[in-house]
């Protein structure tokens, strides 16, 4: 039975920029909306498109206490992180079963984790505002350099798993290609 790694790899690479530019930002904003709906809070949503993709601004139309506001800010990135780890875990699971779709799920997982990692390197946005609220609530000063460390850690874990997954796929992929070449040479 021929395994179709090429198809799943190409499909994953085609979806990679689409997820980063369109799908992950929309899911990010949708995660904020889920939290606002949980708090029975109306909101104003503005979606924008720039050279870096979609982004949104959600303005709650109710008063939120600092804990609720912190939960709201974290929900966007956490939504992407959960999807990223879910798809990365599927990739890892299917790589153990030597399924070609494992490469697809791994690429999709990394693409959902890409935007939270990028947010951690910016000087504005949900992560920075969350850190400000934490500093206010705890009356301490957590340095801003902690954010890139957190973002890089979140991104490194699935990438390490991806390359471990890729090792299994590559061994299987090369083995099947060698088998095809040997069969052609024999004929």
Question: What do these coordinates show?
Answer:
This protein has 187 residues and is mainly alpha-helical. The chain has one domain. It is built from five helices and two strands. Strands 1-2 form a two-stranded antiparallel ribbon. A hairpin with a 2-residue loop joins strand 1 (43-50) and strand 2 (53-60). The radius of gyration is 20 Å and the shape is elongated. The protein starts with a helix and ends with a helix. The mean pLDDT is 84.
Write down the overall mean pLDDT.
84
Order of helices and strands: HEEHHHH
The helix content, as a percent range, equals over 70%
Largest sheet: 2 strands, antiparallel
Derived from helix and strand composition plus strand pairing, the structural class reads mainly alpha
Low-confidence stretches: none
Domain count, please report it. 1
Number of H- or I-type helical stretches: 5
What is the CA–CA distance across the termini? Answer: 19 Å
> Radius of gyration, Cα only, in angstroms?
20 Å
Which of globular, elongated, flat, extended, rod-shaped describes the shape? elongated
Give the topology.
Layout: H1 5-38, E1 43-50, E2 53-60, H2 66-96, H3 101-119, H4 126-138, H5 146-186
Antiparallel strand pairs: 1-2
Helix pairs in contact: 1-2, 1-3, 2-3, 2-4, 2-5, 3-5
């Amino acid at each position: 039975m021929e395994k179709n790694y090429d198809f799943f790899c190409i499909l994953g690479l085609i979806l990679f920029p689409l997820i980063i530019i369109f799908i992950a930002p929309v899911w990010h904003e949708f995660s904020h909306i889920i939290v606002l709906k949980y708090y029975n809070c109306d909101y104003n949503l503005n979606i924008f498109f720039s050279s870096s993709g979609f982004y949104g601004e959600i303005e709650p139309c109710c008063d939120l206490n600092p804990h609720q506001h912190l939960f709201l800010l974290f929900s966007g990135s956490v939504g992407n992180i959960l999807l990223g780890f879910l798809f990365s875990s599927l990739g890892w699971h299917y790589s153990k079963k030597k399924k070609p779709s494992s490469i697809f799920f791994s690429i999709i997982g990394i693409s959902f984790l890409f935007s939270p990692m990028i947010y951690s390197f910016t000087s504005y946005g949900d992560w920075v505002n969350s850190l400000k609220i934490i500093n206010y609530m705890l009356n301490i000063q957590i340095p801003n350099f902690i954010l890139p460390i957190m973002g890089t850690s979140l991104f490194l874990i699935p990438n390490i798993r991806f390359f471990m997954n890729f090792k299994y796929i590559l061994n299987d992929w090369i083995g099947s290609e060698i088998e095809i070449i040997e069969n052609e040479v024999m004929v």
